[in-house]
Structure formats: C-alpha cells, structure tokens
C-alpha cells in the first residue's frame, strides 16, 4: 500500500478516486480492458505470444553470439505472422495503443486547468 | 491483478471532462498546491533571491560549452558551485523548493493511484514531452 495516500487531503483523494473510476469506464479504457481479458482467456493467442517471446529471446541470444542463421530469421517471421494474423492479439494491441493515446489527452486537460504539466510534475515514479 | 469492470457503464466524454475538472479543482484546493502557488509568487518578487538565481544562471550560460565538454577549469567550477550554493541558501528559494517537492509527492501519489486503478501507468504513458 502506498503510505503517501495518508498525506492526500480527503477532498483530493475522493476526486482522484472518482477520476480513476470514470477513466476506467471511458470508451478507450473499457475497450482495452475487454481486449486484455479476452487475450488472457484465449489459450491459442497466449500460446502464440509465448512462442514468439521465447523465439525472440533465443534470437537475441544467438544474435549477440553471431550465430543467427536464415532458418532462425524464417522461424521468427513465421511466428510474427501467426501473431499478426490473430484477431484477439491484434485487437489487444490496437486497444492498448488507443488507451495509451487517450491518457495524454486527459493529462493535457488537467494540465491546462492547473497551469503546469501534471504528469511531468508527477514524474516517472511508477514506470 | 485483473481489473474488473462493469462494462455496461460507459462514461461519456462529457462525464470524463467533468471528472477531470473536479480533479484539477480539488488539486488546486490542496494546501500543497496553495503553498506552491504562494511561494512561487513570493519568489518572483524576492529581489535578493532573483539576483542570486540570475548570477548562477549567467555563470552557467557563460560556461555552457565547457560544461558540455566537461572541461570547466577547477576555479570556474568552484565559482559556479559557490553561486549555486548561494542561491540555494536563499530562504525564498528554500521555501519554494520545499513546497515544490511536496506538490511533486502529492502529484506522484495521485498519479500512482490513477495508474493502479486504470491498469496503465499514467506518468509513463503521458511521459514528459507528450503534453
């Protein structure tokens, strides 16, 4: 639990929670979470992603040792094509990008009202 | 942790805008924000502090190229550090920086709360330069 929460004045804490709840119900965030849930529940999509991730790690390892072959490149391309052809994965990617594009708009509005960049002031503590 | 949402309730853009406005209004009512605003105004009117800041900035500017090359002579480096310490020692600067730090902590806490709730890091997504 974040101990700093105790330092937030109650009115601001309530407004923060209300904004969080509202954002969660905005169209881009709803679409993102829906796609994320579908992705987690889809065994085939999860398998594609795991296989691609493993292959990418192996490829990087072979690359750093100068051992990459044409067969490695072809194998990676096949896996990438499988992932790109999977509608559930692609919907997740699209909705995630839309959610990522949406939040800076919200920050822009907050920052405009406050007179400073809110996210900039908050810094990269949570990344 | 999986975020559980009632998908039937979609917040319209106007509802989001209102929540955003309420959030900004609530933040501007916090003691941290008010102190920051007040001390920022005071600092702008503090001629001693402004002279100290200006002296440091002018010295920094004059050494800009050497600083980039990390080739500042030790005597100049010491002078720059003395000017920096001089402006940081100004009561108006100290008070402003303390207020700024408290506002930063407040914004970080709120941003972390938002991020935990929506499942995306607000600051990472809105990283500096995006706005």
What does this entry show, briefly?
The complex is a heterodimer of chains A (about 130) and B (about 130). Chain A is an all-alpha fold. Chain A is about 80% helix and about 0% strand.
How would you characterize the overall build of this protein?
- The complex is a heterodimer of chains A (127) and B (131).
- Chain A is mainly α and 127 residues long.
- Chain A has a single domain, classed as YheA/YmcA-like (YheA-like fold), CATH 1.20.1500.10.
- Chain A is 80% helix and 0% strand.
- The two termini of chain A are 17 Å apart.
- With 131 residues, chain B is an all-alpha fold.
- Chain B has a domain at 24-111: YheA/YmcA-like (YheA-like fold).
- Helix content of chain B is 76%, strand content 0%.
- Chain B starts with 12 loop residues before the first helix and ends in a 6-residue tail after the last helix.
- At the A-B interface, helix 1, helix 2, helix 5 and helix 6 of A face helix 1, helix 6 and helix 7 of B.
Tags for this entry?
heterodimer, A: 127 residues, YheA-like fold, 6 helices, B: 131 residues, mainly alpha, 7 helices
Topology (elements, then pairings):
The complex is a heterodimer of chains A (127) and B (131).
Chain A (H helix, E strand, L loop, with lengths): L9 H15 L2 H15 L1 H22 L5 H16 L1 H28 L3 H5 L5
Chain B lengths: L12 H16 L2 H15 L1 H16 L1 H5 L5 H15 L2 H28 L3 H4 L6
In the CATH hierarchy, the third-tier topology of the domain at 24-111 in chain B is known as YheA-like fold
| CATH class category of the domain at 24-111 in chain B | Mainly Alpha
Fraction of residues in β-strands of chain B: under 5%
Roughly how many Å is the radius of gyration of chain A?
A: 20 Å
């Amino acid at each position: 639990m974040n101990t700093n929460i105790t330092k937030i004045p109650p009115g601001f804490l309530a407004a923060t929670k209300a904004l969080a709840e509202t954002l969660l119900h905005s169209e881009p965030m709803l679409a993102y979470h829906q796609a994320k849930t579908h992705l987690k529940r889809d065994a085939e999509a999860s398998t594609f992603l795991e296989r691609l991730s493993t292959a990418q790690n192996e490829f990087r390892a072979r690359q750093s040792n100068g051992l990459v072959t044409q067969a490695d490149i072809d194998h990676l391309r096949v896996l990438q094509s499988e992932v790109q052809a999977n509608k559930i994965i692609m919907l997740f990617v699209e909705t995630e990008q839309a959610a990522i594009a949406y939040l800076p708009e919200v920050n822009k509005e907050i920052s405009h009202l406050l007179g400073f960049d809110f996210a900039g002031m908050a810094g990269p503590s949570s990344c | 942790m999986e975020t559980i949402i009632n998908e039937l309730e979609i917040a319209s853009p106007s509802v989001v805008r209102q929540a955003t406005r309420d959030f900004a209004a609530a933040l501007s009512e916090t003691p941290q924000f008010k102190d920051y605003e007040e001390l920022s105004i005071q600092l702008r009117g503090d001629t001693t502090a402004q002279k100290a800041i200006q002296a440091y900035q002018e010295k920094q500017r004059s050494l800009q190229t050497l600083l980039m090359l990390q080739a500042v002579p030790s005597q100049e480096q010491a002078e720059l550090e003395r000017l920096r310490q001089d402006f940081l020692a100004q009561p108006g600067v100290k008070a402003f920086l303390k207020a700024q730090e408290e506002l930063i902590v407040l914004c970080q806490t709120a941003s972390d709360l938002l991020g935990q709730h929506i499942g995306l890091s607000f600051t990472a997504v809105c990283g500096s330069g995006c706005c």
